[in-house]
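Quick sanity check, Acyl-coenzyme A thioesterase THEM4:
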Amino acid sequence: MKVTGKTITAGCIGRIVIFRDSKDQRVQMARSIGRLLKGFHGLSTLPELGVQLNHLPTCVSLRTASVRTKVALSLPFPPKPRDFSLPNSSWGPEMLGLYEHYNSLCEVETEGGEKREGPWQRLPSYNRSLKYATGGVYLSKIIQSKARLFTRNMRDPGAAFEYVLFVNEGEQRCVCIFQAGHLLEGPPGHVHGGAIATMIDTVTGTHASQLSEPVMTANLNINYRSPIPLGSTVLIESCVDKKEGRKTFISCKVTSTDGSKLHTDATALFLSIGVSHLLLRE
Ligand SMILES: CCCCC/C=C\C/C=C\C/C=C\C/C=C\CCCC(=O)SCCNC(=O)CCNC(=O)[C@H](O)C(C)(C)COP(=O)(O)OP(=O)(O)OC[C@H]1O[C@@H](n2cnc3c(N)ncnc32)[C@H](O)[C@@H]1OP(=O)(O)O
């Protein structure tokens, strides 16, 4: 059987070969890639994946009339990557308490004692997202192999960004519990504005990705209202203002954990990009 196409390297699941012959197989392929992406931070749900994958033939070069595409997904990093959104020894009592609170809302017990999904969902978080298939994205293979998600690249627990995100799909809300480590200093004893912006971008971007498909930040407006003490835990809450085609408008606020002090507020615009954007970009 003749097979054409390119190898798509993505995360943490074995090697899968998919032949794209019919609509059924397209759906199958969408499901497989959906499963593959599941678990990646910010990409754990891709409801419109099936539609997006219809674009694959334009980015995965097809040279035969038989329209068979081989999509090989290899194993570039260990099968069980660390989930950074789980508690570690650096988490203070405030961070842990809030984590326990939201985590308890992720599962509810029915009257019959049965466990069901609750209104909230904890999002796992890894230090790598998709690894692109082809050159042109990274300067070299060395950079490609060393690339890590900005907020998850510190080895020393508690030194920088400690955070966990929970989403409530029904309410279109997202909450992040963020403990700011000592390496994030800006003004003496307080968190750097760029670190705050990074967290706002991460929370709102992840939220927007959860609602549709992968997104890129097009616009981010931030008002810094009061400084955040280094080492403190804060809440970052985002909510969807509106969705218009590819655009998702989100607003966000950073407050003290009891909600009494507003540290920062922001608005953001995200534009969805197709899954094909994630897989190949030449
Ligand atoms: C390579 C893909 C990477 C994707 C990554 C995604 C997920 C990764 C997974 C896990 C990561 C985990 C955690 C982090 C999660 C998220 C946070 C990170 C997100 C970022 O940190 S990401 C980096 C910073 N980000 C950029 O590096 C973007 C640079 N930029 C561009 O890549 C393009 O600019 C783009 C794609 C934004 C749009 O380009 P485009 O060609 O697709 O669309 P186009 O320009 O035609 O605009 C269509 C309509 O949007 C309106 N529009 C456009 N821009 C606007 C603006 N600024 N203000 C107001 N309206 C705007 C137009 O006016 C038009 O409106 P209308 O249709 O009404 O006329």
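Posting the structure with no commentary besides this: The first strand starts at residue 107 and ends at 109.
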